[in-house]
Amino acid sequence: MNLYEFEGKQLLAKYGLRIPKGVVVRRGEDAIFAYENLGVADVVVKAQVLSGKRGKNNGIIFCSNSEEIKKAVDELFQKNIRGQYVAAVLLEEKLAIEEERYISIVYDTTTKQPILLYTEAGGMDIEDVAHEKIKKIALDIRQENLLVSLPYARELWKCFLTEDTRQIEINPLVRTVGGEWVAADAKIALDEDAFYRHEDWKNFDARTMLGRLPTERELAVKKIDEGEGYYRGTAGKYIEMDGDIAILFSGGGASIANMDALIKASLKPANYTEYSGNPPREKVYALAKIVLSKPGLRGLWIAGGVANFTNIAETFHGIADALAEIKPTYPIVVRRAGPFEDEGRRLIEECAARNGLTMQFFGKETSMSDTAQVLAGLLK
Amino acid sequence: MTENTNVLIQGMTGKEGAKAAKAMLEYGTKVVCGVTPNKGGQEVEGKPIFNSVKEALKKFPAVNATAIYVPPFAAKAAILEAIDGDIPLINIIVERIPIKDMAYCLAAAKEKNVRIIGPSSLGLIVPGIGRIGVVGGPLVNEIFQPGEIGVISRSGGMTNELSWQIRRAGLGQSAAVHVGGDLLMGTTYADLLRLFEKDEATKAVVIFGEHGGSYEFEIIEAIIKKEFTKPLAIYIGGKFANVFPEGMNVGHAGAIVAKGQGAAEKEKALSEVGVMIAERYEDLVQLVHNQIYAH
């Protein structure tokens, strides 16, 4: 989960990094009141987004009085920063900058360990900095003590280890005219798989990187995988999209191959969804019901590969339960094989017959991509 | 994996562990014992359970592979136990292991020269010899038969699906390995390609890759260094994902939308060193088939 800048900075402050004096203003809150309380005349107003290059996209505005603040905040809330929804703005003291540096800790897939990246050419995109100007220090996750004398490196390492982050980036790390190091930005991603070690993560607001607030359906699907058996078969992935073909895919790999096949067949997905790892009937039912609840659907594609151990009958029971309730009138195409495939096929075809659904079923003799074409044909 | 692979299962008394034990035994794999803390003395599928890996190895020193079926929060301890016991091959099926725990285990494994397959890996199969994990499931004999094509996949379902496409074309598999979909992979495509290069049975390899991460780029290096010279065809899923913002996760944990790591960019780089690119996953078989029999 990516953190907003203000959340990241609060985390960094816990580890002794100095952060600029600032205040967060959410939508609907009184920005002028916040500004006056902050007690600093020259401030920078920063749009809070989860990804993207803010500076280059006019997401940062300098202000010196209440009028300018009001104008800047209104302007930022009306914006989409590179497709990103602006959840809040951060008003911060303007720093007297002497120099700007860059420091980050991320996982390196070559060493399969964290790596510290540092450059004196801070303030610009790291991708645009010449390779030889970037200092790369390989770290060992087993070593708690970091023998690196770069500013804030030790504090960052402690934060990285303790907070289960996947990535910490400070750009720029500023040295002020007064000689102090200040984290002027913070980009932090948390490792959601470590949630059970961090009770406090529950307090973060719901978020999506899709340039809007999460939809009700997205929030509802996320709940499916919560609770004690969270790792036993997942059915909690749902991203709402603009199209009209409802999607129920099984398997992470099959799901992305099928999305590509769907678009190749000139169809438009209403959602991206995937369940896998042999989830129980109840989880699949809950997921299917939400997927089918989206208005304006024109077709349904249920597709997965030849499963290794996901029980086709059990998972299709869940889908059939939802189909029987909703009784869609649009065409449904199914492609699936694996353990208990015959039973799964029988029960979903019987469900279709009983409820007068238009359904075509394919087993492993037909490839997944070909059945996308079948659905496209039915919709012509 | 050979006839002499003796497998231990950590977490064998759990539901998934017991199922895996059965699946492996039915395929003729030598599963010799299991480990579950505090359940020592029990039996699963007629095989003894021990409280610790240490105890198990004392009784069964021939163990040379372990498959790990424990909850994610218990994974680090289980993997480190196996590494401490110098078991040379570890398959981790566990999904959603915190990345910090996994990095810790991978560092420990590297020092002891232990090979990890996974995490989030359903395992591997050498048709006719055995399987570690549940690749193929109960339909294993309908999908796998000994043959000439190596299969590597980021996805468990697609390991099976690709293997089925191979079988359907009248061919067989030399081995199929599900490397898992996480950001940190114990054994990478390039690691496996080097092994397939040495394997006489393998005439060609097919790969199911995904957008995100940099592992596909390691293949290029292996080919340039001539560490892999056999025909190779790859399908990279996730072209649709470029509609999503950078940093977003679509698909497996390692499938993160990132500049320079999209499916199309990977395909371009790979095709420049002669790797055959499949437009659809089902075309992979035809591509390598043509190569093998054109020679």
Automatic annotation (TrEMBL), chain A:
Official protein name in the record: ATP-grasp domain-containing protein
InterPro entries in the record: ATP-grasp, ATP-grasp_succ-CoA_synth-type, ATP_grasp_subdomain_1, Citrate-bd, Succ_CoA_ligase-like_bsu, Succinyl-CoA_synth-like
Residues in coiled coil: none
Biological-process GO terms, alphabetical: succinyl-CoA metabolic process; tricarboxylic acid cycle
Gene3D superfamilies, sorted: ATP-grasp fold, A domain, ATP-grasp fold, B domain, Succinyl-CoA synthetase domains
GO cellular component: cytosol; succinate-CoA ligase complex
Catalytic activity: oxaloacetate + acetyl-CoA + ADP + phosphate = citrate + ATP + CoA
Pfam families per the UniProt record, alphabetical: ATP-grasp_2 (PF08442), Citrate_bind (PF16114)
GO molecular function: ATP binding; ATP citrate synthase activity; metal ion binding; succinate-CoA ligase (ADP-forming) activity
